[in-house]
Write a sequence for this structure.
């Protein structure tokens, strides 16, 4: 299930790279087994829309909103969720 | 259907399933009342809670299943739940859901429905849902799902009768069609699969449709089960695998993801159909609060302020409260003292000595009850309000750098991060940490926190040896333990715990709730009760052992005789002094004299304990012993003479008793062990008295101050404080602040008390870890203390200099470790560059 799909050699966009305050749509999970299941249980389903709200003061974990509930996850986990950025703000080029 | 419908005469087995935080436990309590038992599921440490009740002549046994988010087979809880549902085949399944987050709960409900067990949906926390503006049409929901839906408020016990009735009805119902989630694109394949399964003997063990769903999802446990039943490489497995692969090729999505999506859409659809939202501002209120509370700059300030408030209210104010609480405990001791056989002139009956020792050991611990009640109430408020989860969010990165988890915060705070706590509830609360590796690391490091019992010992040593730097020394002690805990956690997770299962940090941030008085009170009392139980059982039992070790083999006949001769001299002097008074004849009898002497001691103790209420003590003693009272508070000249002589007699008696006690300890088993260890402990600068204190404190750390008190008792009769006595004696004996530093650091790292180690056994489920939690800190503490003492002596550093150097070293080490881990996490993943030579063709 961890098979990655590269479209045109482009590096896939991961939830970890989405800036705070932006929205993304889940494409698929690269994680397997328990982490994948846990994320699915909490609503990170394919096509689900996710608002990245903020990072913790130390930069990690990441706080997201799915529907009406808030979920926090570490960057290492967010790096396994492939997303499409749904609304990219203009200054996205400045992101680290 | 694979469950047999039960008739009213039979007994029913009901499984209580639900997601975490759905209020399953309150529903369980509501159904079964006090009739509960806890056992373990075979082979695992997950608690199996079961209870029973009678309803309409039927005995209903309820099993509280562990809280799980779904019914896959990845986590232990999920496997336990599934094994129970498929193996024990309960007659009815009561699915507790949180009405305020219905959609996610329904995803789980849909998975339960596939098991084809008669189900009752318990719509719990209806009040919360109502307050957040959700109107749930239970009739529509009932209709859509095809099962009974019972709205409840577990905390208020609303809906108890309805639920009991619905469970009974569901058990005997034969018709009715429950909803089965459909999987759209996969339906034809599922049907084919189901038919194939119907041909095999698997259908007798599992619901066929469920098995088909799981096979196509690729559930590893089910794949294993099918292989076990039908042998590897059978047609069904191959068929399922082909199907999964071709689906992935076609849709770019795994079947499992797709099926989870189908269930989720169905749940969303049901929610749309049954729930109307009347106000939408509830969620945004939580978010507004979060904007401040989780703000990058404000968050650390608010966190520190919160911890400070907890410290101030529980420890500072709590100590004030113990002033009112201690007299109650002292009166308990007085009561025990009255009940036990009376004291002898010099030797007490063993039963009395042991009884009082036990009461004293227990009282030392029970003294902290007001502090714990406040501390645990405040922590419960943090938990219930939702802030605790946010603390975990804020601190996770810090903890993670040392192999711990954001949720290690709560155990650390309970254990007494700097304020003083107790490791027993601290270790208990590690239960909620999902990551096994972090959980073990937390369990093994919580005991390094400053438990309340360590503090009197620290205070004693700091007052004697670091008086000019008191606040610095206390700051040193309260923070160095955190750095040590983090370093040890890092060490353990990268060595002995390395192979343990780790679970990612994914956590739901609950919305803010206003905690209820009942909820907070219940939790605070429950945790305090755990503490009291520890005192009542383990500590008392161990105190008996320590007592025995300190008491035997006892004094030699010769020494014993010498003390008795001295006592006889004292009584003779007393009698000579009062011979001229009319009372001279009265105390010629030893028994009468003993009675008077004991009464005098009781009177002095009562006076000391009573403080301002001293007048009441006089009345009490006058009423209890009207004849002898005249000598306690003399009115005429003759009585005064007796009283003066009595005071001298009492003083001599006390001195002799202390001397006996000290000689007894020196010659006792524990004293011998302490002396025997001296050659080894000299590297850390510990003399045998310190060794004895350390050994006796294993029962409970409180006893260390008491033991030291007995060992350093010269001068006690002049009413010098223990500080003064210790200071005078130890400084003569060449005891320096460097010695004290080594002892304090050893005490900070020293193994947990017995009660904590037992809790570690309970939480880790193994004696091996319990033993580890004793041996490792002892070695660590000894090595570090030896380093401080031997190193400090070699370098010619003073106590406070060594303290500063040592602190700097530990902090630097902790920072380096933490930064190294963070840095190594950031290192870019290794990208495999294809080898172009092989790709030439």
């Amino acid at each position: 299930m961890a098979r990655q799909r590269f479209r045109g050699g482009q590096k896939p966009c991961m939830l970890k790279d989405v800036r705070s305050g932006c929205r993304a749509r889940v494409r698929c999970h690269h994680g397997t087994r328990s982490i994948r299941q846990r994320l699915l249980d909490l609503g990170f389903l394919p096509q689900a829309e996710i608002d990245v709200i903020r990072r913790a003061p130390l930069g990690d974990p990441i706080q997201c909103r799915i529907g009406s509930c808030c979920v926090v996850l570490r960057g290492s986990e967010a790096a396994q969720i492939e997303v499409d950025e749904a609304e990219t703000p203009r200054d996205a080029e400045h992101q680290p | 259907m694979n469950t047999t419908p039960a008739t009213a005469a039979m007994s029913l087995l009901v499984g209580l399933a639900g997601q975490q935080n759905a209020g399953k436990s309150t529903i369980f309590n509501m159904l079964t009342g006090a009739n509960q038992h806890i056992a373990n599921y075979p082979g695992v440490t997950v608690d199996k809670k079961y209870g029973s009740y009678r309803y309409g002549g039927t005995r209903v046994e309820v099993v509280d299943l562990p809280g799980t988010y779904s019914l896959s087979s990845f986590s232990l809880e999920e496997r336990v739940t599934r094994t129970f549902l498929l193996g024990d085949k309960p007659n009815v399944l009561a699915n507790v859901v949180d009405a305020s987050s219905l959609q996610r709960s329904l995803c789980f409900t849909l998975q339960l429905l596939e098991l084809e067990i008669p189900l009752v949906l318990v719509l719990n926390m209806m009040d919360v849902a109502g307050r957040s503006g959700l109107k749930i049409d239970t009739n529509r929901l009932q209709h859509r799902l095809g099962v009974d839906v019972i709205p409840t408020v577990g905390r208020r016990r609303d809906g108890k009768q309805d639920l009991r009735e619905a469970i009974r009805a569901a058990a005997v119902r034969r018709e009715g069609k429950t909803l089965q989630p459909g999987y759209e694109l996969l339906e034809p394949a599922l049907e084919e699969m189901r038919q194939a399964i119907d041909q095999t003997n698997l259908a007798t063990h599992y619901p066929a449709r469920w098995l088909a769903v799981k096979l196509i999802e690729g559930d590893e446990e089910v794949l294993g089960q099918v292989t076990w039943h039908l042998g590897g490489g059978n047609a069904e497995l191959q068929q399922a695998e082909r199907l999964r692969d071709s689906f992935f090729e076609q849709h770019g999505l795994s079947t499992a993801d797709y099926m989870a999506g189908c269930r989720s859409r169905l749940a969303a659809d049901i929610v749309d159909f049954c729930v109307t939202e009347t106000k939408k501002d509830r969620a945004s209120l939580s978010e507004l609060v979060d904007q401040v509370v989780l703000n990058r700059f404000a968050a650390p300030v608010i966190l520190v302020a919160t911890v400070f408030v907890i410290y101030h209210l529980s420890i500072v104010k709590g100590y004030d409260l113990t002033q009112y609480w201690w007299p109650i405990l002292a009166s308990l001791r007085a009561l025990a003292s009255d009940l036990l056989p009376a004291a002898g002139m010099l030797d007490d009956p063993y039963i009395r000595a042991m009884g009082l020792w036990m009461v004293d050991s227990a009282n030392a611990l029970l003294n902290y009850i007001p502090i714990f009640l406040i501390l645990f109430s405040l922590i419960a408020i943090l938990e219930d309000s939702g802030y605790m989860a946010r603390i975990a969010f804020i601190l996770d990165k810090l903890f993670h750098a040392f192999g711990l988890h954001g949720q290690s915060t709560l155990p650390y705070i309970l254990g007494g991060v700097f304020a003083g706590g107790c490791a027993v509830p601290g270790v208990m609360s590690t239960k909620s940490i999902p990551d096994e590796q972090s959980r073990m690391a937390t369990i093994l490091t919580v005991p390094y926190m400053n438990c309340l019992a360590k503090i009197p010992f620290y205070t004693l040593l700091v007052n004697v040896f670091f008086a000019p730097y008191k606040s610095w020394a206390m700051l040193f002690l309260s923070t160095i333990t955190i750095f040590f805990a983090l370093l040890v956690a890092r060490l353990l997770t990268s060595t002995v715990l390395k192979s343990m299962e780790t679970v990612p940090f994914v956590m739901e941030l609950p919305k803010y709730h206003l905690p209820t008085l009942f909820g907070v009170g219940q939790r605070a009392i429950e945790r305090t009760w755990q503490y009291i139980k520890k005192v009542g059982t383990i500590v008392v039992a161990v105190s008996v052992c320590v007592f025995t070790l300190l008491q035997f083999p006892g004094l030699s006949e010769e020494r014993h005789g010498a003390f008795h001769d001295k006592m006889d001299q004292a009584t003779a002097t007393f009698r000579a002094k009062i011979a001229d008074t009319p009372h001279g004849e009265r105390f010629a009898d030893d028994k009468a004299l003993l009675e008077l002497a004991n009464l005098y001691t009781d009177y002095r103790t009562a006076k000391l304990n009573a403080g301002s209420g001293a007048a009441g003590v006089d009345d009490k003693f006058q009423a209890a012993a009207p004849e002898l009272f005249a000598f306690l508070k003399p009115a005429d000249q003759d009585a005064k003479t007796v009283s003066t002589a009595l005071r001298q007699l009492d003083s001599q008696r006390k001195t002799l008793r202390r001397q006996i006690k000290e000689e007894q300890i020196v010659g006792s088993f524990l004293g011998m062990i302490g002396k025997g260890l001296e050659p080894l402990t000299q590297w850390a600068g510990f003399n045998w008295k310190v060794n004895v204190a350390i050994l006796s404190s294993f029962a409970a750390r409180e006893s260390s101050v008491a033991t030291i008190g007995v060992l350093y008792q010269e001068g006690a009769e002049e009413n010098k404080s223990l500080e003064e006595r210790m200071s005078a004696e130890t400084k003569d004996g060449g005891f320096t602040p460097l010695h004290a530093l080594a002892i304090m650091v050893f005490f900070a790292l020293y193994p947990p008390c017995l009660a904590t180690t037992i809790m570690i056994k309970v939480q880790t489920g193994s004696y091996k870890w319990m033993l580890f939690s004793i041996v490792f800190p002892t070695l660590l503490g000894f090595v570090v203390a030896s380093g401080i003492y031997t190193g400090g002596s070699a370098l010619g550093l003073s106590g406070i200099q060594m303290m500063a150097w040592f602190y700097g070293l530990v902090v630097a080490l902790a920072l380096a470790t933490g930064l190294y881990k963070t840095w190594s996490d950031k290192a870019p993943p290794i990208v495999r560059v294809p080898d172009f030579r092989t790709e030439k063709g």
Remarks:
- Strands of chain B lie at 12-18, 36-40, 47-55, 58-64, 92-98, 119-124, 134-136, 148-151, 275-277, 506-509.
- Chain B touches chain A through 47 residues (CB under 8 Å).
- Residues 1-8, 826-841 of chain B have pLDDT under 50 and may be disordered.
